[in-house]
Amino acid sequence: MVSHIENGEIKHFSANSCLMPICGVFGKAVTTVEGIGSVAKNRLHPVQERLAKAHGSQCGFCTPGFVMAMYALLRNNPNPTVADINLGLQGNLCRCTGYRPILEAFYSFAVDENGTLKVSEDNTCGMGENCCKNKKSNGASCGGSEDVTPGYTGGERKRKIQLSDLSDCKPYDPTQELIFPPELKLHGYETMSFAYDHHHTKWYQPVEYDDLLSLKRELPHARLISGNSELAIELKFRFIDLPAVINPRQVRKLHERHLEENGVYMGTGMSLTDMDNYAVQLVKELPKDQTGVLKHVHEMLHWFAGIHVRNVASVAGNIATASPISDLNPIWMASNAQVVLDSEARGEKKVHIDEKFFLGYRKTVIQPDEIIKAVIVPLLTKNEHFAAYKQAQRREDDIAIVTGAFLVDLDPESSIVKSIRISYGGMAPTTKLALSTMEKLKGLKWSQEFLDKALGLLSDELKLPAGVPGGMSQYRLSLALSFFFKFFLEVSKKLNLTEIQYLEEDMKIGQDVPETLYATQLYQEVNANQPAHDPLGRPIKHVSGDKHTTGEAVYCDDINVADCQHIAFVLSPIAHGTLNSIDYTAALELDGVIGYLDASDVTTGAQMGHHSDTPVFVKDKITFHGQPIAAIVATDHELARKAASLVKLDYSQEKPIVTIKQALAAESFVFKHFVIHSSLNDNETVVKNDWSKYDRVVEGEIDMGGQEHFYLETQQCLVIPHEDDELEIIISNQCINDVQIEVAKCLGMAQHKIQTKVKRIGGGFGGKESTGAILAVPASLAAKKFGKPMKIKFERFDDMAITGTRHPFTLQYKLAVDENGKFIDLDYTALSNSGHTIDLSMGVMQRAMVHADNVYKFANADITGKMCKTNLASNTAFRGFGGPQGMFGTEIMVKHVAEQFGLDHDEIRVKNFYQEGDCTPFGMHLNQCNVARTWEECRANSDYDKRLEQVRKFNENNKFRKRGIYLTPTRFGIGFGLKQLNQAGALVLVYTDGSVLVSHGGMEMGQGLHTKILQIAARCLEIPIERVHIHDTSTDKVPNASATAASVGSDMNGLAVQDACRQIMERLAPFKKLNPDGKWDDWVKAAYVERVSLSASGFGIIHHEPVDFFNGKGAELFGYSVYGTACCEVEVDCLTGDHHLLRTDIVMDVGESLNPAIDIGQIEGAFIQGYGLFTMEEIKIRPDGIRLTRGPGNYKIPSADDAPRHFNVSLLGNSSNKMGIFSSKAIGEPPLFLGSCAFFAIREAVRAYRIQNGNSDYFAFHSPSTPERIRMACEDFVTSHVPPLPEEGSYTPWTTSV
Q1: Are 1145 and 518 in contact (CB under 8 A)?
Q2: For residue range 808-822, what is the model confidence (pLDDT) as tens digits?
Q3: Its family (predicted)?
Q4: Binding-site sequence positions for substrate
Q5: Known catalytic residue: 1229?
Q6: What is the pLDDT of residue 123?
Q7: Which of 210, 477, 939, 987 is the most exposed place for a label (fewest CB within 10 A)?
Q8: What is the pLDDT of residue 135?
Q9: CB atoms within 10 A of CB 638
């Protein structure tokens, strides 16, 4: 939070630290998360306390950002509404939680419309009036009399319906906040000019307007900076020279705002937030018919970047950078707004933002010595009508795909168009006026014929070539036309032109989405007679939760070592070719550059990876874009990066294989094909059925895109050389054992000389399972070569290029069904895009194959897996590990059968559900098969049947808005695919004061593993959880540990800890017998005195029988499966492809939950991650293999705005798993596939629109269901104006489906 004095008042605002230059806070107070509360000092701010108590942090890496966003909001507004809180969190992303607990924590600070706090001693619940205690018909309550357990819903084992009770948290008292530093107030820095000379850059911060003009005359090419969102990117990734910067924010004259005769004057010193507030003020004060432009400026600004950017950014930057996809420039152009330009040489002038303003891509008429002093926003006249629309990949904090703005002056009597202005962003290299269409529409009558003519004219004028930069040529044109159609209807409705078709149609989706949250978390309370000190089964908060909220949780990059050097990679700019030479000359000339590493430093000639097929550095053959070729070593991180950018590469380029289709044609595979034949479960040979005898067969294929992990903490590694040739490696990784093995192999060392450890990581999701060697091996080589500690940390831009993604799949199927819809025979082929090496592709494919049945019984199934070798980064593990891909193809098949043969898809599922004891195609018998239980409970909880009928009625009554509701089941087998990985070790140390230190092979990535292990140890040792501690995960405590992956972290490591605790308790038993009235401390001391060991090494294994994937014979692969069902309802804008996820209900079978708070958090987080996978997260790669999606600017994960406002999660009751630790079940991965439920609900909405328009056949709808895919599947009279794409091969598309 930044605080400063403005017009004599202290103002606070949140800002992104990565975009805020140090010079930009001259004279201001900066407050960070460390400054408002501390675990070490036993003092948490109410924001921190409530977030931790509500289980609002998992990995904790995003948590400080959320805390400071909420803190800054409270400093400005101690009594915010829910809407204020939603606005205050714009721009904050979380990859772990699913947002529900974060929102619940922060909504507890909200006041209702009467100004009453939602959470207080009288009302204990963040749900406000929707609290369960207000719905007592079923006896449920989350507060109340002492004789009723909070959340009691009846039954022997009490069930609770909410995890968090925030009523006992301390109230927020704004009088206790930090004061603004008196010395800043005293010195009046805000009135002072400021200049600073730093290396090659001079910073100027004038306060007088004339000084600003003078500076711009003397330094015409100096960059003006306000929000720094554009310049920071150029500095970070293009390493531009920046001799001079001018920050005009302190110039008071630029903050002027007033009404003029025909417009509103807004100085460009105003932040976008100030501009928005002023626009809202004027909309309230001025006559409604004048404020159309201001109203749409306000609406557009709501979706413009995030609040933390808008707090510092200026409209001048948005205009001057001339982005062709600007959100605001089409509004200025359509409304004929003006900018006031000023220079010392020529004085002030007003210029219209019209077709002459933008000269070309990123070029305007603004002269180098001019500044944009103000923008003048027009006020409308009586007969003018204005509207603006935007569509992006994600609604919140995302750049536009297309923006449209429209202004028409209509004669009220004749409906003749006097004038019309039509402007678009995203349809040309500049913001574009549709001049030809505008001219031809002028003088025509506003009518149905007018609309048809306009759509035809716009289609001709705006048509984009098939390979246009940015891609999506058809979708962008359809958006442009759809926006005009929306404008046409909006104006027609305003004028009540009853002859216009669809006049009564409501065009806006999401109107039923509430601002607040309606959420329940249903779980079984522990048995009433469980000892109070026994923590197992209780919703204990994350052991590091408090530290997450205060910023005191330590991650790899927080560890600083004396004399540490930094490494940055030189990456391949091409996807396939031959490296001829490397020239380091320019890089080595920079002061502070120590040296370099390349393939010549890998003296062993070893390669990384489980199959030793991944070069440390390119020696000759380049095999993917972003492949490490060399590394620069320098004294700091940014210097190393800059030096790496100066390394010159000489290479020869070759045509890459990028897609599955290309790999199949070239027969390019990383390994031999895998097969499963269900007939081998009962026969010695494969049974070959005659498909010609089947009457009902569906055949098809479907694509499922990959997914970037987008862990909030990028990959990092620190290597410290020690005596005796030892290496200490601290790394952000899920498998420190693999890191140890790879470093030993590539450096020719023994493993016992390498200590690898991790305390916690900021998210992993599988992306940090097998990729650690990519960092650790070069860093270890450098530490050896230069004899210094080495740190390497990936920028997001590089991380996304190097480390791989979820495997994209193509799923081919042929399915025979009988007349009742029962599955008779299946021929299923899964094709994965593995990238350039094997990595974990074999395991991913095998899991996809053993989940190709999902929850359905097939009389016969033949499943094949083919792993395609391409010139992409090697795709790797990702939560679900192939399971979601396999199940997705199966669920598509169910839809295909239902639509082709006119059957009910829900009935098909129920008829084909596995029953208790059934055998899967891969030979596993399903015991405790709870799929039907989760299905029926979710169907009932969600009121599915009633809502299905409501959705049908909604769709009958709405032409362009459609809803879909869907139920999706899942089954997920628990265990690693390789037998040797299904083992774990632990070390339990009891000290003479009775305290216990536990070490185990699993690591903490946010999934709460350490918390569960502490609970297990506390139960096993029969002591309070506060007596047990876990320090870190290290190879010198527990050797040969498997990766923390496959959802088995608590299963395996819990068993190992249980085993170690059992040994200790057996040793203490004689002392307990001798002193039955004693306590833990007494028995421990007595054992020590008698020289009885108080340490134990534990070991645990879980069930595994290997499947023969080469011949196809199955086995009892997993010990058990996890089951679940989700119900999702969505609303789709069929004209734009936008959608809202309205409600989600989930029932999950987790056995006896070790910790309901952690398990429900995992379910919610996995669901939202799966929702992102199937609806919005799209990896974009050029046909030449160049990866385009390399950061948050063009890769979009769900934001808090995307999370369903109705979100109900229920843990299946009375489910006890005899194969799991303390009857529990694994939970990390199983819920992820349920995110596909939203995809299928969207598909139902699209299908309703297609049926309405006469398209009732089955249609292939690939994943993810992006706005583009949704809109282009919604074929209608608008898309009929969009020309078809040219023949494939006749043009080069912007991106390719890999």
Answers
A1: no
A2: 999 999 999 999 999
A3: Belongs to the xanthine dehydrogenase family.
A4: 769, 847, 881
A5: yes
A6: 52
A7: 210
A8: 44
A9: 14
